[in-house]
């Protein structure tokens, strides 16, 4: 998503509203998102990495699959094809992780709490200053993103 946003915003110079209301739904972008959210493809990639003794790469793909599985129930009308290329099915959940009209405020709050609890656990387990610093940077970026979204919703009149 970060690459998508950066390309659309800084290369093509689209506004945030155009990016999220039009460009996000472009068929080519949707295929890219679907590949990176496809549980079968992620499982295959994790298996290949494991067989090739690339354990960290395998864990990265497992992490992506976990994200995709957790993502599946929180997309109201903007979900991914989690079983691509075997199925074009998209689950339309009654809950959205971002849309206030579909419990987005509650889902976003639960997500933020989960991120910070997980970050606290990881922070306590890692000893490297670099890893801890990286975690702090990622969490700071997450907070900045959350604040930006809340400000956007407040200015747009979304409730």
What would you call the shape? globular
Tell me the span between the first and last alpha carbons. Answer: 24 Å
Structural class: mainly alpha
Number of strands: 0
Number of helices: 7
Oligomer state of the chains in this structure = single chain
The residue fraction in helices comes out at: 55-70%
Poorly predicted ranges (pLDDT <50, ≥5 residues)? none
Radius of gyration: 17 Å
Number of domains: 2
What do the pLDDT scores average to?
Answer: 91
Beta-strand portion reads under 5%
Biggest β-sheet description = none
> Strand-and-helix sequence, N→C?
HHHHHHH
Quick structural gist:
With 159 residues, the chain is an all-alpha fold. Helix content is 67%, strand content 0%.
Structural overview:
The protein is an all-alpha fold. It folds into two domains: 1-93, no CATH class; 100-159. It contains seven helices and no strands. It has helices spanning 2-11, 16-21, 27-37, 39-51, 55-71, 104-125, 129-156. The longest helix is centred in the C-terminal third of the chain and has 28 residues, at 129-156. The radius of gyration is 17 Å and the shape is globular. The mean pLDDT is 91.
List the helices and strands and how they pair.
Layout: H1 2-11, H2 16-21, H3 27-37, H4 39-51, H5 55-71, H6 104-125, H7 129-156
Helix pairs in contact: 4-5, 6-7
Observed structural traits:
7 helices; mainly alpha; 2 domains; globular; 159 residues
């Amino acid at each position: 998503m970060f690459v998508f946003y950066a390309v659309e915003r800084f290369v093509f110079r689209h506004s945030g509203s155009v990016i999220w209301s039009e460009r996000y739904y472009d068929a080519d972008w949707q295929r890219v998102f679907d590949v990176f959210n496809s549980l079968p493809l992620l499982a295959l990639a994790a298996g290949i990495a494991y067989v090739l003794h690339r354990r960290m790469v395998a864990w990265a793909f497992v992490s992506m699959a976990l994200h995709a599985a957790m993502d599946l129930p929180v997309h109201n009308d903007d979900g991914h094809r989690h079983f691509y290329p075997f199925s074009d099915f998209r689950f339309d959940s009654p809950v959205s992780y971002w849309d206030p009209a579909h419990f987005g405020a509650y889902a976003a709050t639960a997500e933020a709490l989960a991120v910070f609890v997980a970050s606290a656990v990881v922070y306590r387990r890692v000893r490297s200053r670099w890893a801890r610093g990286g975690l702090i940077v990622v969490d700071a970026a997450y907070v900045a993103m959350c604040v930006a979204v809340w400000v956007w919703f407040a200015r747009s009149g979304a409730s």
